[in-house]
């Protein structure tokens, strides 16, 4: 059976109607609640949804009144989630994710890959490996609406597990055993330092003295941090043994901090290639600190043509000869 867009929208309306009939709440109310909960601000939520402030307030109040709960407390001029609101936020997001997935499945009945494609990628992958592949996807399939979220490895895996993402791309170890993991590229860590650091003139990393150096590291949960911890463990060390000056949430922040200090850092060779070539920082290899870039999918969820189109590009070993 071939469905046109009008038919698809009728089916989605039927799904929405059934949900409303069974639960007494509408999907629009859920969207409004989630917008307010994420921003913890009624006016900003109204602006994002292109609704009036009174309409947003009325939708939230109707939900609270019908079910005898309170989602928000007022603290001065702002609102904060109650414990009930925090618990319901996760459920509301899950329902809307399922409805969005249903719409993607129906839209996937067209011959050409189209519809929304939600990708969560860790920072190093998103910044230094993924962009040319996303350009290729856009050129090959302009009907696909891509939504890229950049986070760390842990958050990307959580999104794939919970249905908030169709694909995840990570560089660290993943704790979710139910996800399918496929290696699509490889990377290695290097030691990074300022040009005037005492180790900047050596050709190989000293075998001792790591505990005597000050360190700037990525935040817990990042793939870079996870791989460095694994590398240290292989040498009988731990993060706790290193004098830690700063933990920062991005490669760029770590690079800038290292260049302005006498601290060391461990980062992806891809992330430091251009600053190192420009002579802005110095690097040393970390022997054995290699890691994969992995594609995460959830085998329990429907794989649309849009998802498969990106997977084909990501796993194409001959893609764009010369790209990293």
UniProtKB/TrEMBL annotation:
The keyword Ligase does not apply. Keywords: DNA-binding, Transcription, Transcription regulation. It comes from the Bacteria. Pfam families: HTH_1, LysR_substrate. One of its GO terms (molecular function) is transcription cis-regulatory region binding. Residues 25-82 form the HTH lysR-type domain. The keyword rRNA processing does not apply. Belongs to the LysR transcriptional regulatory family. This is Transcriptional regulator, LysR family. It comes from Paracoccus denitrificans (strain Pd 1222). The lineage of its organism: Bacteria, Pseudomonadati, Pseudomonadota, Alphaproteobacteria, Rhodobacterales.
């Amino acid at each position: 059976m071939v469905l046109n867009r009008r038919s698809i929208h009728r089916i989605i309306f039927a799904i929405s109607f059934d949900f409303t009939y069974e639960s007494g709440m509408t999907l629009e109310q859920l969207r409004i609640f989630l917008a307010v909960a994420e921003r913890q601000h009624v006016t900003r939520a109204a602006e994002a949804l292109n609704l009036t402030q009174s309409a947003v307030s009325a939708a939230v109040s109707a939900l609270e009144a019908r079910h005898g709960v309170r989602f928000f407390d007022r603290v001065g001029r702002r609102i904060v989630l109650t414990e009930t609101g925090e618990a319901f936020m996760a459920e509301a997001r899950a329902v809307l994710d399922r409805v969005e997935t249903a719409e993607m499945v129906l839209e996937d009945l067209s011959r050409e890959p189209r519809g929304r494609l939600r990708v969560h990628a860790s920072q190093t992958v998103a910044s230094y490996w993924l962009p040319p592949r996303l350009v290729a996807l856009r050129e090959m399939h302009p009907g696909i609406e891509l939504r890229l979220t950049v986070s760390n490895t842990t958050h990307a895996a959580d999104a794939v597990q919970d249905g908030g993402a169709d694909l995840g791309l990570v560089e660290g170890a993943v704790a979710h055993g139910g996800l399918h993991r496929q290696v699509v590229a490889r990377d290695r860590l290097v030691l990074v330092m300022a040009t005037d650091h005492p180790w900047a003139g050596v050709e190989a990393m000293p075998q001792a003295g790591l505990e005597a150096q000050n360190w700037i590291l990525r935040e817990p949960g990042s793939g870079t941090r996870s791989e460095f911890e694994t590398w240290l463990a292989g040498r009988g060390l731990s993060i706790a043994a290193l004098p830690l000056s700063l933990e920062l949430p991005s490669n760029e922040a770590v690079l800038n901090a290292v260049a302005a200090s006498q601290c060391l850092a461990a980062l992806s060779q891809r992330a430091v290639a251009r600053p190192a070539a420009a002579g802005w920082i110095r690097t040393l290899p970390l022997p054995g600190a290699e890691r994969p870039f992995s594609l995460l999918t959830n085998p329990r969820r429907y794989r649309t043509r849009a998802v498969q189109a990106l997977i084909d590009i990501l796993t194409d070993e001959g893609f764009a000869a010369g790209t990293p």
